[in-house]
Amino acid sequence: MRRLILLRHAKSDRPPGVADHERPLNARGKRAAPAVGAHLAREGLCPDLALVSTATRTRETWAAMEAALGSPETRWHSEIYEAPADRILGVIRQAPDTAATLIVVGHNPGLGDLAAVLAGSGPRAARDRLALEFPTAAFVVIDFDGDRWAEIAPGRGHLDRYVRPRDIDPDLGG
Fold first, then answer.
1. Helix %, strand %, coil % for the chain, to 5?
2. For 32-66, how does the pLDDT look when each residue is reduced to its tens digit (9 = 90+)?
3. Strand order in the sheet with 2-8
4. 57: phi > 0 → left, psi -120 to 50 → alpha, else beta; which?
5. Which bin fits 63, alpha (ψ -120 to 50), beta or left (φ > 0)?
6. CA dist 154 to 58, 89, 121, 169, Å?
7. Residue 161 main-chain phi, psi, to 5 deg
């Protein structure tokens, strides 16, 4: 079995004169990222490998949670930045099969679109909600039968859970 965690970066700031790729987390994002990381760890959702966009907000999100998740191997992927769903799927399909659980830290709309198309089964209400929104610092856990990342395909995943920051703590928003 393969377990995929798709995590949208935490809430970012929009400082004037700062390029999109370099936008940092804002105060809410700096609170949400470690809280989400702690929640993942409490739930036993510790990845073997992290694939993270090179954008500042994704790097800061990952840095705030990586230790809680056991500091797995991290690979930085510029291809994930502002990528559509099919490009993100291509990066995932190249992941080593030695990683049974993979986390991808990226951006919308590509990440949310990918989550919606991969989850062919699972709780209907969660899949419907996912099709409508994938807020900052939200994550999904999608399970796949099989032993190879190269074989995962749209509609073949089972949505195990969809968690927004406000589901963990209402004060986190998102």
1. 40, 25, 35
2. 999 999 999 999 999 999 999 999 999 999 999 99
3. 73-77, 49-53, 101-106, 2-8, 139-144, 157-163, 119-121
4. alpha
5. alpha
6. 24, 9, 11, 31
7. -165, 155
Signed CA dihedral, 141, 142, 148, 153: sign only: negative
List of residues 6+ apart from 126 with CB closer than 8 A = 159, 161, 162
Structure confidence at residue 170 as a pLDDT band (50, 70, 90): confident
Cross-strand pairs, 8: 106
Residue 90 CB neighbour total at 10 angstroms: 11
**Concatenated DSSP letters for 44-107?**
T---SEEEEESSHHHHHHHHHHTGGGT--EEEEEGGGTT--HHHHHHHHHTS-TT-SEEEEEE-
Instruction: Centre a 10 Å sphere on the Cβ of residue 13 and count the other Cβ atoms it contains.
Output: 15
Whole-angstrom Cα distance, residue 93 to residue 69? 22
Q: How far is CA 136 from CA 2, 10, 58, 145, 146, in A?
A: 24, 5, 11, 28, 30
Helix or strand (DSSP H, E) at 157: strand 157-163
Give the predicted TM-score (pTM) of the model: 0.97
- Give strand pairing partners of 158: 121, 143
